[in-house]
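Inverse folding, one chain.
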């Protein structure tokens, strides 16, 4: 049972700022911006709460606020919004793990994992993750707050985070390496203010957030001299690891196979197998037959090409005619449109359990992402209700579920190598990868492939682990997976902590 106890404003009232004064000549008939629509870059509201996690009573303090990003001259150029949860009955904060959490996009805030996965409050959805009304919140009895304090960070122009002026160039924030650089500085300031330098630290990121935290692992070590115990990648991107041509085309097939199995689009002998018993067969074909065949391109002989197409059709639920017509290279867009075309449905991109309805059955890609509209349906009301009514953060700022962060500079993305280098330098650092089998944007087999390529030497593989779940990109929205995934997070955090007196050395 949640209990609201206290609300305190610290470091200045939330969103309070001196009324903007018109320049000479005034605003004419225009009103100056409302103070409550301008972010106070250094402010916070503190509230007290309690809940039960795994049968254990947990009282905690929640802080919702903003902290500055400074330029080279020490002037604030932006405010980064965050929510921070700290368990109250911890006597030794030095040994208490701190989890720093990001989502992705780029351009989305940390709302998804905060109220869908690891935070103390959970949005109201059904057991498979679909929206229900009335919108609202309930206790998350699977939250990891029992074992770690958590801060959820919203990069600039996501959530309530904003620049101090439209004159601040977006290039300071909107790019792979710019993003990593300023957020590492921000994390260092947060850890210093909160007195958490002694604590074991973990980064968790989802989707593009995995690119972010992979780069942050090395940036924190090299530029802030902050060393981590763990990095968790939820539905990871490619992390700058190249896979063009045959590898790009081949690696999609196991995801196609999982989705076809879910929608019962396979032959009876395959359909009767359990998913995790079926997929290794497809993975083996992908690596040992499909990838070599695609490598031969137009010089693959017709008989072999036909045999490969027949197997792809058997595993994917897509016809041999379509596969041959696309030279064995079926795009994800086409797959989402094609799999259930004869039934009048498309399947979702980020979670292919979701079905959509298009204007017409013809075409090569769906009209919209069925899963994303569903998630926005449930998450958007919930985060507004939660921040304002429960965390007492009052503002008229627009909460950006998707903020404008374009153009985004994707050049020089070497975040996978950054993560490898951070792990090589830091024997304490462990990696956990979590994937949903039905995620078509950051699919599970590409996540495995990235992990395999991360360390060519094989010297670090004892600190690398992958896990799969029977849902999509946000695998935690499925009730069963939420319980399993959070338990696995607890185990990972526990196992990544060194034994007392154990040194960080090879």
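Residues assigned per position:
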């Amino acid at each position: 049972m949640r209990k609201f106890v206290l609300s305190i404003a610290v470091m200045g009232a939330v969103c309070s700022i001196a009324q903007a004064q018109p320049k000479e000549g005034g605003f004419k008939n225009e009103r100056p911006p409302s103070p409550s629509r301008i972010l106070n870059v250094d402010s916070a509201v503190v509230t007290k709460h309690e809940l039960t996690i795994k049968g254990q009573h947990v009282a905690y303090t929640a802080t919702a606020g903003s902290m500055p990003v400074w330029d080279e001259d020490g002037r604030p150029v932006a405010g980064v919004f965050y929510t921070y949860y700290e368990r109250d009955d911890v006597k030794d904060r030095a040994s208490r793990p701190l989890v720093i959490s990001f989502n992705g996009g780029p351009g989305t805030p940390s709302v998804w994992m905060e109220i869908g996965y690891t935070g103390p409050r959970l949005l109201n959805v059904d057991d498979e993750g679909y929206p229900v009304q009335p919108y609202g919140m309930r206790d998350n009895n699977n939250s990891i707050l029992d074992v770690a304090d958590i801060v959820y960070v919203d990069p600039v122009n996501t959530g309530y985070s904003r620049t101090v002026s439209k004159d601040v160039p977006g290039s300071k924030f909107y790019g792979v390496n710019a993003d990593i650089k300023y957020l590492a500085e921000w994390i260092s300031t947060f850890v210093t203010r909160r007195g958490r330098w002694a604590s074991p630290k973990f980064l968790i990121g989802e989707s593009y957030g995995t690119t972010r935290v992979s780069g942050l692992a090395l940036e924190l070590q090299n530029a802030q001299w902050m060393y981590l115990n763990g990095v968790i990648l939820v539905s990871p991107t490619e992390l700058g690891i190249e896979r063009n041509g045959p590898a790009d085309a081949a690696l999609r097939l196991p995801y196609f196979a999982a989705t076809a199995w879910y929608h019962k689009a396979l032959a009876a002998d395959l359909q009767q197998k359990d998913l995790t018993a079926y997929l290794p067969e497809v993975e083996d074909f992908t690596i040992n037959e499909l990838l070599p065949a695609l490598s031969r391109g137009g010089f693959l002989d017709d008989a072999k090409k036909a045999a490969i197409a027949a197997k792809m059709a058997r595993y994917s639920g897509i016809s041999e005619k379509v596969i041959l017509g696309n030279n064995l290279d079926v795009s994800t867009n086409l797959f989402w449109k094609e799999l259930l075309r004869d039934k009048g449905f498309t399947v979702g991109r980020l979670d292919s359990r979701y079905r959509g309805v298009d204007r017409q059955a013809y075409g090569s890609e769906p009209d919209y992402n069925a899963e994303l509209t569903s998630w926005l349906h449930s998450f958007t009301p919930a985060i507004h209700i939660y921040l304002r009514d429960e965390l007492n953060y009052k503002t008229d700022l627009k909460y950006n579920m998707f903020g404008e962060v374009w153009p985004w500079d994707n050049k020089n993305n070497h975040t996978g190598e950054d993560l490898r280098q951070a792990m090589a330098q830091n024997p304490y650092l462990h990696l956990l990868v979590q994937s949903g089998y039905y995620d078509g944007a950051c699919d599970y087999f590409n996540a495995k492939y990235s992990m395999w390529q991360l360390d060519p030497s094989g010297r670090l593989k004892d600190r690398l682990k992958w896990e799969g779940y029977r849902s999509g990109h946000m695998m935690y929205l499925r009730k069963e997976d939420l319980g399993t995934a959070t338990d696995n997070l607890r185990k990972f955090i526990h196992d990544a902590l060194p034994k007392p007196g154990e040194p960080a050395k090879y």
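The first strand starts at residue 7 and ends at 10. Confidence is low (pLDDT under 50) at residues 1-30.
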